[in-house]
Design brief:
The complex is a heterodimer of chains A (158) and B (184).
Chain A (H helix, E strand, L loop, with lengths): L7 H8 L5 H9 L1 H27 L6 H31 L4 H27 L5 H27 L1
Helix pairs in contact in A: 2-3
Chain B lengths: L1 H14 L1 H20 L2 H17 L10 H18 L1 H9 L6 H7 L7 H20 L2 H12 L4 H8 L3 H20 L2
The chains are: A mainly alpha (158), B mainly alpha (184).
Chain lengths: 158, 184
């Protein structure tokens, strides 16, 4: 009479179809273990067969088109990401200026602006003679010259 | 040289999503359905799984079978779904659990008598009931080992568990199935 029946590990191997020679030998001589193995292996086998037939009968969706759309969308996203990275790199090359450098730049701009404003101011302050002033100065000069000519003529007559 | 020859069909297989679906969908759908116990959600997860696999096919190194790779993606998707509140809500509100009796109706007669078919249906239903009572990890591992016929190493790879942990889950699952199905 067999006192030790199949352990769970041996039974698991048997159920996976990997029973050892020792296990098979045991089943040959042990009626309870053989009956149990037939029940369990048979039931699991039935489940395996029926469930696969059920799954195979379920209609499969067409994934090719959806996969293509997803791949296209992914390409667009990748391109957008690349553009963003390029923009960030470009900005990064221009942007990094230390605080003193920014300050110097501002001071130089301010000095240039001041210089420009001063030159404009100088130009505006130049005292151009107006045509009226030029005319009155010229008439005054001619009047004085005609008066002295008359005096010299009178002196000659005398 | 052999490696290169062996990898070529895999690459081609992964490049054609229709072939991929045709080849592996039934097994993957069965695994996910009985892992989560909801056939509608399982269909969604399996669809996502194929799309994800197709998108990331370049990352498949060929160090395991395509089915093991797909299963690992499916396991991660199942975990992601299980974490969401939406999943918990739908699980409470509407569980479209698979009907094992309905499975038998799609099985071709194959010369089997009505009595044989009825017996097969009852035994399969019994196994499905027992599987449903296992813990999440035990169920996942049990399905991979005894229904999908994956090796312990493949299960470890697909689940990210240690080999010893996989063996422990197998041991506990088998113990319960023996008690519930094996008893005379």
């Amino acid at each position: 009479m067999i006192r030790i029946h199949l352990q769970d590990e041996s039974f698991a191997e048997l159920l996976a179809g990997e029973g050892s020679q020792q296990t098979i030998e045991h089943l040959r001589v042990c009626e309870p273990c053989r009956a149990e193995a037939e029940r369990v292996c048979g039931a699991v086998g039935d489940f395996r067969r029926l469930s696969l037939a059920w799954a195979a009968a379920r209609p499969a969706p067409a994934l090719r088109q959806r996969a293509a759309v997803l791949m296209w969308r992914r390409s667009i996203m990748a391109a957008a990401a690349l553009l963003l990275v390029c923009a960030a790199i470009d900005g990064g090359l221009r942007a990094p200026q230390s605080a003193p450098a920014v300050h110097e730049h501002a001071a130089a701009t301010l000095a240039e602006d001041n210089k420009l404003l001063l030159s404009i101011d100088e130009e505006l302050n130049v005292q151009d003679e107006s045509p009226g002033e030029v005319y009155s100065a010229a008439s005054a000069a001619s009047a004085s010259s005609s008066g002295s000519a008359r005096a010299s003529q009178a002196a000659v007559r005398e | 040289m052999l490696g290169i020859i062996a990898e070529q069909p895999r690459t081609t297989e992964l490049d054609d999503i229709d072939t991929l679906v045709q080849t592996y969908r039934p097994r993957l759908l069965r695994f996910v359905t009985f892992s989560i116990g909801d056939q509608d959600l399982a269909e969604t997860i399996v669809q996502d799984c194929f799309l994800k696999a197709y998108r990331n096919r370049a990352s498949f190194r060929g160090d395991c079978s395509a089915f093991t790779w797909l299963t690992s993606i499916a396991v991660n998707l199942v975990k992601d779904y299980q974490r969401t509140e939406k999943f918990r809500f739908w699980r409470r509100a509407r569980n479209t659990s698979v009907d094992v009796s309905a499975m038998a109706s799609v099985l071709a007669d194959g010369g089997a008598t009505a009595e044989t078919r009825l017996l097969a249906r009852e035994r399969a239903a019994r196994v499905a009931q027992v599987i449903a009572t296992l813990s999440e990890n035990q169920r996942r591992v049990f399905l991979m080992r005894f229904i999908e016929e994956m090796s312990v190493q493949e299960i470890a790879l697909a689940t990210g568990m240690q080999v010893s942990t996989v063996k422990t889950h197998i041991h506990r699952g088998v113990k319960l199935v023996r008690q519930k199905v094996g008893a005379a």
